[in-house]
Amino acid sequence: xxxxxIFSLLEQRNFKELKPILSEMNGADVAHILSEVDENDLPVxxxxxxxxxxxxxxxxxxxxxxxxxxRRFSDKELKQIMDxxxxxxxxxxxxxxxxSLVRRILQQADAETRSAINxxxxxxxxxxxxxxxxxxxxxxxxxxxxxxxxxIRKNGIDKxxxxxxxxxxxCRHLLxxxxxxxxxxxxxxxxxxxxxxDHVIYIETHADxxxxxxxxDKYSFLAIPVVDSEIxxxxxxxxxxxxxxxxxxxxxxxxxxxxxxxxxxxxxxxSVFAIWRNRxxxxxxxxxxxxxxxxxxxxxxxxxxxxSSVLFACVPMIMDxxxxxxxxxxxxxxxxxxxxxxxxxxxxxxLWKEIRASFLxxxxxxxxxxxxxxxxxxxxxxxxxxTPFTCLVVSLALMCTVVIAxxxxxxxxxxxxxxxxxxxxxxxxxxxxxxxxxxxILYCGLAIALLG
Amino acid sequence: xxxxxIFSLLEQRNFKELKPILSEMNGADVAHILSEVDENDLPVxxxxxxxxxxxxxxxxxxxxxxxxxxRRFSDKELKQIMDxxxxxxxxxxxxxxxxSLVRRILQQADAETRSAINxxxxxxxxxxxxxxxxxxxxxxxxxxxxxxxxxIRKNGIDKxxxxxxxxxxxCRHLLxxxxxxxxxxxxxxxxxxxxxxDHVIYIETHADxxxxxxxxDKYSFLAIPVVDSEIxxxxxxxxxxxxxxxxxxxxxxxxxxxxxxxxxxxxxxxSVFAIWRNRxxxxxxxxxxxxxxxxxxxxxxxxxxxxSSVLFACVPMIMDxxxxxxxxxxxxxxxxxxxxxxxxxxxxxxLWKEIRASFLxxxxxxxxxxxxxxxxxxxxxxxxxxTPFTCLVVSLALMCTVVIAxxxxxxxxxxxxxxxxxxxxxxxxxxxxxxxxxxxILYCGLAIALLG
Lengths: 452, 452
Prior knowledge:
Radius of gyration of chain A: 30 Å
Mean pLDDT of chain A: 87
Strand order of the largest sheet of chain A: 1-2-3
Shape of chain A: elongated
Number of strands of chain A: 6
CATH architecture of the largest domain in chain A: Orthogonal Bundle
CATH topology of the largest domain in chain A: Tetracycline Repressor, domain 2
Oligomer: homodimer
């Protein structure tokens, strides 16, 4: 359906024609439409939706719009939504709402859901337990395929994923799993214990949620069981939530690499003040650290000027190239660490690779730099201060800078990981500052030693 | 199972004890173990695996190890693997292998698989068609639930996802879908047409594979149907492949933001030469562009020195802060564009947000800078050159730099997107160069105008 038509119907407040159109849409798309609706019309438009689509849409909405809706809902309406929500979505909702609304929301949930919500809420924020759902299909080993289907039919309607069923004993210890595909492909009399996979890969409730998400990436599962310290099944994590976690972690890493504190809201929903708060700390830190570079520059300035006026003109080129070379290496290593392509154990392999690469790069850049200075600046523009020997010294300094930048760039994230810091934090801006200072000292030192 | 034990068994070449241990493991884990095995032992260890695990492991291995194995396989062994592979995995394999091996691989695939492989290979590299599989379960509208289960049992064993079944007519037009969950929760006599979802969200074969992956992120599907221009079903994309695409795109974006050409291999598998080739272009471009900054610096140097020796010391601080402020804005906007949180239509909303945020940030930084220069440099260290007026001019220049950097930083990616370039390419390094030049001109201009 064309969005243009929908928005023009909305503008005309032609809800009668709108209703059948919205009813045929997917919840995620309706949520997108609702995000553009005027606040006062929002409850009216939302009430056009059939019950199950309403819940599906509600889950996909931004939390500020959810809040508006809940405040306008009657208790009965709120209860209808709560009845349709999966437990993990209900938990997400409660985590976003102000305390005053949370009480009202929990009152409208049935006792079983309320207790499930409380179970999940007790796990630490970034743990596997916090993103699991307690709704799953369980089977016992002695059940037949036929009984299993009966169990799924009986209990499955509310369960988020019915396609992986977990086999447990009477104490809820996790014994194995069967997929619905396995059940479908075996005869009705087959016992679950004969077809179940008994080497189940699971995750503990207190493990990092990022670890859980990476397991999906690695193993291509649709769900992963979450167990307590005695391997008793307490919940499952489904692949859609894992995908959200992966995307979130990627967004966070990218933000950190750009020296921004990650925001938990989409850009347009982030307030100007929040943007300020997320960006100012690193800007201040980096500003202060840049003054050291300034000090170094000031110390050497007069000496450099005495030697040759052109030496100064090359400072930005040396510093920028160093910074870029360093951030190339650091970002590559940070990403490889995040994808588990390398671990801190690979430090020497990484170092060896970067040393070789950096010499190749440094040599290419030095040749290009020498050629550019001699041909363009000396011959073409006639700056005769660019003597061959001066250009050689500049190129040499550039070479050393690139090599140092690459080594700092690749080793710092490994070091951060080793001491359990987030490698993404030591990315480009941080490394640029270090490399700036190092390259400046090196450049000035070399120039004074060789040309002074 | 403890990896340590496995590796020590491998070292002792104790294959007898190794075999039962490996047999209980997941393919992804076995592939990890095999990546550490000596090339000569690789085929031996691989042959320890039971048939289905062998295929599962093979799919997860890096392409260089797959190539080694295929070269050592007998035709019969190769055929066994090919029989177990899903079509989309077979396509991935063929895309990675040298031409000489591709012929041998195709010869060992059965005629049906070969034709399916060729169908998928004909789609452009980054299209939805190229990541789909042609193996899916299809039903007809007049079938009952019971007949549907029979159809799944008959055809489902080879199909990658049996949980979403697509309903088609005799010309393969896509009419609807039913999930196995729907089938399980309805009586055996129910007709498929009565329970099928008939507003199916699909993607066309020639759409971008990233678009397909983002649909999974948005809609939480397990599979998405791929259709031709006449809405005839030609394949499906499964969520695990979508997850791979998302991770790949994230890695590519991160690489581009750090001025690196993305590599299609994991870091440790990328040759030193390939690393050089991926990194040298941007380093060269940025080095040359940095010489403009040098030219500007050179032009103003003597004038700045005449006014006050301290003005020079502040150049790195102004330039670095500008660069950081610009990359914060650009990376935030690039990520929001990638996540579809904003589109180019939101340009004014983004601009307005960044203008307000940049004034807040610029004011905070200017105050901090003024305070630091006056308190630390003037009072504490006694550099009396830092007069209040000089510090004011420096802080003013810093303010303007931050505002300009933020505006360039947020608008350039939007502009890139508008003209259908990849926004990630105009990230930090590119913006830093522009901001460096602008801020330097501004700083020197201000200093000369106000202090000269």
